[in-house]
Design a protein that fits this description.
about 140 residues; alpha/beta; four-stranded mixed beta sheet; globular
């Protein structure tokens, strides 16, 4: 069986801020930018990896979600407890410096973790937790 991860989903509440973070700071390519009924979905991904993407979507865009659920999602996003993703780089210190220089919300500076990885953590403009590991 040949299964790969094609896309992961993270919510955003400000498409322009999400673009500034993922495109301008992380250097991801914009693969799609689609509007529908006043909402906007963005698909971004790392250069040189066209088969792997992150879909940035409006919170609670699913028509089956209630207004109360949308409020809960928005509250969880603001606290950084709704969505997250783990990225990796060969240059963790360089990536961290770029994030810090661009006023990303720092959660954790590069740290050797007791479970054997070196990583850092930031939040994107929507509050999603972004952990970045050092590739060995």
């Amino acid at each position: 069986m040949d299964i790969t991860i094609h896309a992961s989903f993270l919510p955003h509440d400000d498409a322009d801020a999400a673009l500034a973070f993922y495109r301008d700071i992380l250097g991801f390519e914009v693969r799609n930018d689609v509007g529908y009924e006043g909402m906007r979905w963005l698909t971004v991904g790392p250069a040189g990896q066209p088969e792997t993407s992150i879909v940035l979507h409006p919170p609670g865009a699913d028509p089956g979600i209630t207004d109360d659920e949308r409020r809960t999602i928005t509250e969880m996003m603001a606290k950084g407890t709704y969505g997250g993703i783990l990225l990796a780089t060969k240059d963790l210190d360089g990536a961290f410096e770029r994030l810090a220089a661009n006023d990303a919300e720092i959660v954790q500076e590069p740290t050797e973790q007791p479970y054997g990885v070196r990583d850092c953590a930031v939040r994107d403009p929507a509050g999603n937790l972004i952990r970045i590991q050092q590739l060995r």
